[in-house]
Amino acid sequence: MEKTIFSKIIDGEIPGKFAYEDEQVVVLHDINPKAPIHLLIIPRKPIPTLMDVTAEDLPLIAHIHVVAQKLANQFQVKGFRLINNCGKAGGQEVFHIHYHFLAGFEE
Ligand code: 5GP
To answer: Residue 3 has what DSSP assignment?
Structure first.
């Protein structure tokens, strides 16, 4: 299967601005931000869509939520939106599962 743009960034083949990384995920600043803070939480494992998640991936999916908490602390925001676009009909453009972390809106 051809590598996704996110796998190429994770592997250092093309540049990306990293906000956080650990053994399971990387967090990139979105190249086309839709909010004052727009990050992408991306598992290193290239699962294409949420529909491809299996039982063995559930700890990873839970971990993404812990990472969202870390990002809220790191960027000192009191709230955020965590969004997954699933499938072409759901607005997904990059078929490597990721969660949009959107924050910095007016209170
Ligand atoms: P999707 O529509 O698949 O949920 O969102 C894909 C997101 O990836 C979009 O918000 C888009 O701006 C972002 N994106 C696409 N290509 C790149 C890239 O090369 N680098 C970064 N940092 N973000 C990208």
So the answer is: P
d(CA 98, CA 47): 9
Q: Report the DSSP beta bridge partners of residue 82.
A: 101
pLDDT at 106 > cutoff 90: no
Q: What is the CATH number of domain 5-103?
A: 3.30.428.10
User: Which of these is catalytic: 38, 96, 98, 100?
Assistant: 98
107 lines ligand 1 (CB under 6 A): no
Interface confidence: ipTM more than 0.90: yes
pLDDT in tens, 10-44: 999 999 999 999 999 999 999 999 999 999 999 99
Specify which residues 64 forms β-bridges with.
Answer: none
